[in-house]
Amino acid sequence: MALFQSISTHFVEFLVTPDQKKFKLANQIFMALLFFGGIAVWGLFLYCPQNTCNYHDWLDIIAPRLNFLKESVTVGAWPLHASTPMKLGVFYTQRYLAIPDAFVSPQFLLLRFLNVYQFIVFEMVLFYTLGFWGLRRIGQKLGFSNLVFTFVFILFNFNGHIVAHISVGHFTWVAYFLFPWFALLVFQLIDGQSGWRWIAKMASLLFFTLLQGGYHHFVWMLFFLGFLAIFIPRHFFTILKTAVFSVLLGMFRFLPLLALYNSLNDNQFMGGYPDLQSILENMVIIRQGGVEIPINNLTLPLGTWEMTAYVGVIGAFFILFFGLIYPIYKSNPEYPYRVLLFPTIGLLMLSFDRVFHLLFTRIPLPIFTGERVVTRILGLVLVFVLIQAGSEFQHWLNHHTLSRFSMLSILSLAVVAGHDLARNFREWMLLVASHYFPGEAKIEPIWLVDNNYTDQPYLNLILIGSAVMLVSYSVLIALLWWERKQDRKTKTAP
């Protein structure tokens, strides 16, 4: 009995204490199990026997684009024009680099050695790893225990938002796994790191996001930074400089869009959440794939993959109570980032149908007209609220002594929450979701490189955008060097 009590006491301490020095080896093993367990789960999710999962955007968007890139690296040609037009929203184009969410990151060179499916799996593992690393950095910064980190890890990686988007072929949603790094940089800004070094890191992250095809994620992060500048005005000019350099670095991707400007203006706004109730419902109700319905009969029909943000009842309670309610009435001096609740709520407002529709129709700029489905913005909102929920829950754990019964109750609830997430996860696995999109037959990779070097307007925009990108990075590096030089002078001054 004494041995059992000793083991259970050490187990509870291992789970809830932020300081893991006493359990260094056990903690490393635990983190390794979480990491490789996540890879195994995503591998199961992506498992799809050959030729059976060509559906929705895997069929219409990803197959053309990745097969085109594979052809490009195989024949050694620039990926400029495709022989067959590719789908972009409601229209088609042969100009690959004019597609705002086209994948252009250097990893595509691996397509010379990998087939498209292998490349998709590689990208998922790569960005899952980056996401895990970013979450781990946040956990260490905020003092997450193993219990809290596990909650945050599971809800971040396997919530309905990311699972459903990957399921229907939104391959560029790998950019979602860069959100922890975005949050980490925002925390550094709140901590006072507001020089050119911070600007360079944030602008580089946004540029890297853009290269992954994460155009939408790039825009949402700019929206968040905009709200941050409003609610924390002392950082206004730092954020303004960051936004300017982020856009200048992205000119390589933005200027070619002008070749399709008239077509992009034909975008139809599809919708957002009509109210808070609809968000809550989509957090606790499992949605079936392959269905397009109005949200609460108040919006235009949207695919269920655009609505769902499923985390289950227990997950929703954890996020909403510790992420929103608890911070309001309980002070926590250990968490100086509560001010981020205001820009997070501002971003949440943009996910509402009527709010964004007003911006979409009154301000005809690509940053607004490029966002047709604003329910997607909830993904970044969830990440910030989830991180705050983890910090507040850890604060609660630090100030309460848990009995074995309390610990057992928490673990039991965690098991139930995991079971709920697993049910939703199974619903969206490629092997299951493919049955919700019947009648979509296999198509052959006919998207060959067919560069048209007489298309001068398009090619000139690419060249100008590339030049702006290179000059902007050179200026940013020069400013960074100048700042470091000034810092060294200050340190060596008597």
UniProtKB/TrEMBL annotation:
Query: To which species is this protein native?
Result: Ornatilinea apprima
Q: Which UniProt keywords apply?
A: Membrane, Transmembrane, Transmembrane helix
Question: Would the keyword Hydrolase turn up in this protein's UniProt record?
Answer: no
Q: Is the Phosphoprotein keyword given for this protein?
A: no
**Superkingdom, according to UniProt?**
Bacteria
UniProt protein name: Glycosyltransferase RgtA/B/C/D-like domain-containing protein
Chain segments annotated as transmembrane: 29-47, 116-135, 147-167, 173-190, 218-237, 244-264, 307-328, 340-361, 373-390, 458-482
